[in-house]
Amino acid sequence: MLKIIIILLKYLNSYTICSFLFILLIFALPFKTIKAQNISLIQDAEIELYIRDWIKPILNVAGLNPSSVNIYIINDKSINAFVAGGQNIFINTGLIIAAKEVNALIGVLAHEIGHISGGHLNRTVNSMKRAQETVTIATIITAGLMAASKAAGLDTKVGLAKLATLGPSIAERNFYKHTRQNEKYADAAAIEYMTAINRSCIPLTDLLKKLGKQELLHENRQDPYLRTHPISQERIYDIMEATKNIKINKTENLLLDEIRFKRIVAKIIAFTNTPGKTLLLYPKNSSQTDAKYARAIAYLRLPDLDKGIKEIKELINLDRNNPFYPEVLGQMLFENGQIFDSIKQLKISSKLLPNNPIILLSLARSQIEYAKNKENNEAIVNLKNILKIIPKNIAAWKLLSIAEARNNNIGLAQLASAEAYFLLGQYKLSIQFAEKARNSFKKKSPSDIRALDIIFFSKEKLIKMENN
After folding, report:
1. CA distances from 46 to 268, 284, 379, 445, 463 (A)
2. Rounded CA gap, 94 and 73, in Å?
3. Has residue 51 been placed in a domain?
4. What domain range includes position 170?
5. For 232-284, how does the pLDDT look when each residue is reduced to its tens digit (9 = 90+)?
6. Beta partners for residue 73, in sequence order
7. Tens of pLDDT along 10-19?
8. Contact 142, 170 (CB under 8 A)
9. What are the C-alpha distances in Å from 411 to residues 9, 277, 299, 448?
10. Helix, strand and coil in the chain, % to nearest 5
11. CA angle at residue 209 from 118 to 82, to 5 degrees?
12. Which of 97, 234, 270, 328 has its CA 20 to 30 A from that of 188?
């Protein structure tokens, strides 16, 4: 089920001291800098699972640990993908839709993985620092010459004005040279990775050609990918030359990958557009799986439950091993007040895809909302399983607090709230709830020790904040 999470940011980009640096590669920025904008992240079990399956072989070839690389889907119609803050890959929904073919999307992600394996984040930060130093030195020299000229009674305004622009100009050229080198390296890496896993780079070339045509557009109308990954004819030619003699054998998995790709595209379109537009793009006369999927979601969002349930149940009957059809049905039933029925569908989904945190979270939410003892206890078990996998899942801690309170376990409810507030950075509240929780626990019990840890680390964070 597509969920959109808004990240509100507090930090400004400290690197953009020169005008040309505003167009620097976004993957060079620290992760907190991504939080300097309002970004809508989409959380969806199906999309994340398929993308992870597609890039796992590439990560292995690149010598990277797949479990250490995070994937984030941004709800943005512009075409873009980038790496930030280490091994975090961000993908716009616009890129997924524009890719048209699964290998085009995988090719772009292989390119981004090339940036990670090449250590370009640290190198670009260093390049930016050198550019900053060049501008600073040029500014100091210019200021000194201006002062000396004035003291000597010389009029050198024109010459010094030209000199004043020389530092930024040199810095800009050096930075662009560094950027082009990074892109060339990442392209070569993508070709190497794609060939190693027997995937074609031709769809990637087609996508780059399409994006390259935007070069004549005003910058405001260009997709961010073009500005952060400069696309020249030379670059496209080099990729074509490097791949023209590579023979790729079509695999049986490619057809399944294309079906899955079309399905996630349909899902994104159905959840991010109005139902009316979705139904125009996927009309009733289309019997393709992706079309039925999009229509099911559109009808359920109207809401026209009868039509939506009919479409999704047809898909379930076609593929009873697919965990995402009952997940979508369960979520839409929940949103339309049919809580018990939503639990049944989400249990089916969870059984088909065990221990998936996103599906388990949806199931736990429905179970807590149903407000019966049996379901509430099941929700607690599910939430604890989520937290074993993702200890920093704020939503799971919040729901666990509600579920424990329902069972009159006030101390555990307060401790769960303390965990959530700590992760949210609200350290005063985390201390308050942890201190309250301790009143319910035996001294030196595991829960009491955890509450003490939260208090200690919260106070430590507050001291650091005061000193900054």
Report:
1. 11, 24, 22, 40, 42
2. 10
3. yes
4. 1-197+202-245
5. 677 788 888 888 888 887 776 889 999 999 999 999 999 999 999 999 999 99
6. 42, 91
7. 322 322 222 2
8. no
9. 32, 49, 43, 10
10. 70, 5, 25
11. 35
12. 97
- Collapsing DSSP to helix, strand or coil, 356 comes out as coil
Select from 183, 216, 245 the last residue of a domain.
245
Lowest mean pLDDT among 39-53, 122-136, 180-194: 122-136
Q: Spell out the residues 6+ positions from residue 145 whose beta carbon is closer than 8 angstroms to its own.
A: 156, 160, 163
Q: How many domains does the chain have?
A: 2
Chain centroid, CA 129 distance in Å: 27
Q: How many angstroms separate the CA atoms of 303 and 98, rounded?
A: 28
DSSP labels, 299-341:
HHHTT-HHHHHHHHHHHHHH-TT-SHHHHHHHHHHHHTT-HHH
Nearest-5° Cα angle at 248, 244 to 249: 150
Tokens of 188: 């070569």
Cα 429 to Cα 416: distance, rounded to the nearest angstrom: 12
Q: Where are the alpha helices (DSSP H) in 71-156?
A: 93-99, 102-117, 120-152
Work out whether strand 88-92 and strand 70-74 pair parallel, antiparallel, or are unpaired.
Answer: parallel
Q: Is the pLDDT of residue 383 over 50?
A: yes
Tokens of 226: 């073009």
Among the candidates 213, 245, 277, a domain finishes at 245
Query: Residue 71 forms beta bridges with which residues?
Result: 89
For residue 252, tell me if it sits in a domain.
Answer: no
Amino acid letter, 166 = L
Residue 377 lies in a domain: no
Please check whether residue 257 lies inside any domain of the structure: no
* 28 token code pair: 């060079």
